[in-house]
Amino acid sequence: MERKGTLHAITGGMILIALGVLIILSKTGIWSFDASWPVLLIVIALGTLIQNVKDLGGWIILAVGATFLLTEIFDVQIYALGKYLLPVLLIVAGAYIMMKQRK
Fold first, then answer.
1. Alpha helix locations (H) across 1-103?
2. Are 41 and 65 in contact (CB under 8 A)?
3. How many CB atoms lie within 10 A of CB 43?
4. What is the structure's pLDDT at 103?
């Protein structure tokens, strides 16, 4: 029980640190805060994966955060990615379910 509380504290600390860094970057004009929200998703996912690396939800949150962050950085239109993202996610989810069933 003590270990789980420590891991939750680490995740909470990571989120607060990331939020503070993002606010500083926004105030200094280095990076706009409205474009940095995917970083928070990535930090939440990393905190989840630190607790349990096999957590599918953590990996999904990480993928969503990374996708939105890359679209912000490279100015990619999200609807263009959507044509391929949903089918790829369905393929990956189906393969995961099949692999999980084999064990």
1. 2-27, 37-51, 56-74, 78-102
2. yes
3. 22
4. 63
Residue 39 in domain: yes
Q: How confident is the model at residue 57 (pLDDT cuts 50, 70, 90)?
A: confident
Please state, for a pLDDT cut of 90, what percent of the chain lies above it: 30
In this prediction, residues 51-63 reach a mean pLDDT of 89
State residue 28's pLDDT score. Answer: 93
Q: 37: domain range?
A: 2-77
Residue 99 belongs to some domain of the structure: no
Residue with token string 């990393």: 46
- Structure-token pair, residue 40: 């928070």
Mean predicted lDDT score pLDDT of the chain: 84
Token pair belonging to 10: 């680490």
90 within a domain of the structure (yes/no): no
Number of domains comprising the chain: 1
| CB distance 18 to 40 below 8 Å | yes
* 70 assigned to some structural domain: yes
Alpha-carbon gap, residue 40 to 47, rounded angstroms? 11
